[in-house]
Amino acid sequence: MRVEIWADIACPWCYVGKARFTKGLAGFAHRDEVEVVFRSFELDPHGPKGVTAPVVEVLAKKYGRTLDEARGMEEHVAASARGEGLEYRVEGRDNGNTFDIHRLLHLAAARGRQEELLDLVYRANFAEERSVFDPEVLVALAVEAGLEEAQARTVLADDQAYAEDVRADEREAAELGANAVPFFVLDRRYGISGGQPAEVFTQALEQAWAGREVTAPEADGGETCEPDGACAVPGA
Amino acid sequence: MRVEIWADIACPWCYVGKARFTKGLAGFAHRDEVEVVFRSFELDPHGPKGVTAPVVEVLAKKYGRTLDEARGMEEHVAASARGEGLEYRVEGRDNGNTFDIHRLLHLAAARGRQEELLDLVYRANFAEERSVFDPEVLVALAVEAGLEEAQARTVLADDQAYAEDVRADEREAAELGANAVPFFVLDRRYGISGGQPAEVFTQALEQAWAGREVTAPEADGGETCEPDGACAVPGA
C-alpha cells in the first residue's frame, strides 16, 4: 500500500500530523507493506524568495492580535506538539517561501533519502535554533540526510532543478481536492485531512487495506504470460 | 497519476506490452503528469539460479510439441513484436530464473534509473545476442543504464540485496489479483491485464484521469494549515 502525504515544512500541523501518522502506522499490522511518499504543498507560494519574518509577528498581523496573543496561539500548537513528544519553539521561528526546500526534498527522494531530510528539516524548523530559510543550513541538513554536498548546492543554485516536480505535486493536490495540509492519501483511494489522532490513521489504513481491489474493466483479452512461463500464443 | 506495471523480463508479452503502453501513453493528453513504476513478477520463481535452457526447447517440452512447432509459436510472438517496431530473436534466447535481474531493477529504481535499465534488459534479452542470465552482461547493462559498476556488483553478489523489495512487489500483485503479466494498475484503481492495443491504454488512462477523486470519510475534523499560512489554532 502507498501513502502520499502532502505537506509544507512551514506547517505546524504537518509536523504534528506526521508524528501522529507515524504512530498510527506503527499500530497497523501490515506496516511493513506500506510505502510513504511526501508531496510538496506550499502554504505561501507567492512569498518572495529570501524574505522572512518572525512567525509570531506574521500571526499577529494576520489575525489582528497583539504579539502576546499570537504567542498564546503558538503555545496551543506547541502543547499539541509536545503531547506527541515533539520539541516546539514558539519564539525565533521564521516564515518564508519554502519552494527551495521542496526542490531539495525532491532531490532527496530521487536519492532515496526523502524522509531522512524531511525529518531533519522539520526538526531544524520547529525544534532547533536553525533557520531552514538559510541555504547553508539546508546544505548542512542535506549532508546530514546522506546527500552529497555538491549535489545539494547544485540544486539550490538552479531555480529550475526539481521545480517541475514541486509544481506537479501541487497540481495533483488541487486535482485531488486538497486545499489544506497535511493531506494524506491512501492508495489514491482514501483521503484524510489534517493531523488526526494516531488511531484514526490506524483505522484508515485498516479500511484501505481491506478495500484493496482493482477495478478491471479491461482485464480480459490481453495477451499475457502466466507463472511457469505459459504465454498466450496463437496456435499453442 | 501513477501507473504500476508488473512484468517479468522473460515475458514476451511484457516486452510487447510495454511498447504498446508507451504508445498509448503518448496519445494521452496528461502524459506529463503520469509517473510509471515497474514492479517485479517472476514467471518462474522456483527455477534454480544459474540454470538456463533455450526458450524454444522449454516451449516444446511444456506444450508437447516439436522444436519446429515451438519455433512457430515463437514466430507468432515475434510478428507481434515486429508489428510494434521491436526486434525479436526467436533462436538463441534462454529461459531462467530472473530474481537477480529484479533485484538489480530495484537498485536502479533507488537511483532513478529503473526504466533505463529495464529497456536495456528487455533489448538484450529479446533483440540482442546477449544473455541476461550472465552476471557480467547484467553489470554491463547496469553501467549503460547509468548505475555505478561497483554498486551493481555488490547487489548481484548479495542474494539478500533488494530481495525483500522483489517479494513485496510479488505479494502486492497477488493481493491485487494479478496472476499473469503484464499487469497495469492505474492509480491503484483500474487494472489492465495483458499487452493490449495502444488505444486501450489511452482510453484507460483517460477513464482513470476522469475518475480521479479521493473518498474522504475522515476528511473533516483534523487540524490543518491553509494556503496563506492560516492554521487552525484553538482560540484564533
From TrEMBL, chains A, B:
Annotated region (Disordered) at 217-236
In this chain the DSBA-like thioredoxin domain maps to 3-205
Concerning Pfam families, the annotation shows:
DSBA (PF01323)
Record's signal peptide? none
Annotated Gene3D superfamilies: Glutaredoxin
Q: Which InterPro entries match?
A: DSBA-like_thioredoxin_dom, Thioredoxin-like_sf
- Protein name, as recorded: DSBA oxidoreductase
User: Which organism is the protein's source?
Assistant: Streptomyces cirratus
